Amino acid sequence: MFQIGPLRFNLYGVMFAVGILTAGILAVRGGAKRGIKKEIIQDLTFKILLGALVGARAFYLLFYWPDQVPLTFWTVFKIWEGGLAFIGGFAGGLATGYLSARRHGLKFRTVADIYSFPLIVGHILGRIGDYLTGGHPGKVTGVAWSIFLNGAPRHPVVLYEILGLLIIGGVIRGLKRAKGFDGFFFLVYVQLYAIQRIILDFFRPEFTDPRFLGLTPTQYAVMVTFLTAPTLMILEVRRRKMEGNGDGGDSCRSDREASRTGERFRRLRAKGIDR
Questions:
Q1: What element of type H or E holds 118?
Q2: What is the distance between the alpha carbons of residues 213 and 194, in angstroms, rounded to a whole number?
Q3: What residues does each domain of the chain span?
């Protein structure tokens, strides 16, 4: 927390806002490359942000709100103090992004690809805010790279996540030249992040909650995305392959028909029927 005159700022809130602004700018640039107007991308960003905030707060309140902290009507809205779950925000943003893309007559796959890299950048900046404010402490550990937090040396889970997101972002950028289908980059991001998050949550202290059989609510959620992303990839590859085979089959049939027609024409000429 820092103060400028009468205004008080939470570093988490500041970095969260910077992340949103940066992601929005990158999305506008990505949309321009695909011929989508700036105003449309800005509208999409606003709608996705609203859905993400509602989803992130709802997921946190349902599964991560501390039992020892009283939950009142007004505390529900104090998101600048923290208390947002990324996976809930992802689900909320996904839903509103889909609806908004349809309203603008855009393919959701295309929109998802546009936001894949900006989402990673915004996520990293938000996690930097978590690190600066001591958010998401890891389990107590004796490793050399531990950080002292909440009175004990702990796994720097937030730094692990930032490093993982940097790697995922690098993979997405490296695949930009690959000839994938619409939505390919987004599904790659979803798959890689799911793997990362399943692993990382074992280093968080809340993973021992007996209500969830040794797993976190987020782990259950990303397991769904972990299975969904490759399934969609396989289905899309099969669909494109079938379409390709269909085109090839039509071409072969056309060639055979042309050959038979030519053969009949030559026979008629040989019999002197051609006029």
A1: helix 108-132
A2: 19
A3: 2-270
For the whole prediction, is pTM greater than 0.85? no
Residues linked to residue 2 through DSSP beta bridges, in sequence order:
9
- Token look-up 């505390």 returns 75
Of 165, 55, 189, 53, whose CA–CA distance to 115 is shortest? 189
pLDDT at 126 over 60: yes
Could you report the per-residue pLDDT of 209-245, keeping only the tens digit for each?
A: 566 677 888 889 999 999 999 899 888 888 888 877 6
Q: Find tokens 């059989």 and name the residue.
A: 213
- Per residue in 13-27, pLDDT (tens digit) is 788 889 999 999 999
Beta-ladder partners of 154: 140, 147
Would you state the structure tokens that stand for residue 50, as one six-digit string?
């609203």
Pull the structure tokens for residue 47.
Answer: 């709608």
pLDDT over 90 at 165, yes or no: yes
* Of 62, 50, 125, 127, residue with least CA distance to 89: 50
Residue the block writes with tokens 């619409």: 182
Residue 20 vs residues 49, 183, 228: alpha-carbon distances, Å: 8, 22, 26
Phi, psi dihedrals of residue 114, rounded to the nearest 5°: -60, -40
Distance CA(72)–CA(75), nearest Å, equals: 5
- What DSSP element (H or E) covers 76? none
Return the percent helix, strand and coil in the chain, to nearest 5: 70, 5, 25
Report the alpha-carbon distance of residue 125 to residue 194 in Å, rounded: 19
CB 130 within 8 A of CB 86: no
Give the list of residues 6+ apart from residue 219 with CB closer than 8 angstroms, or none.
197, 198, 201, 207, 212
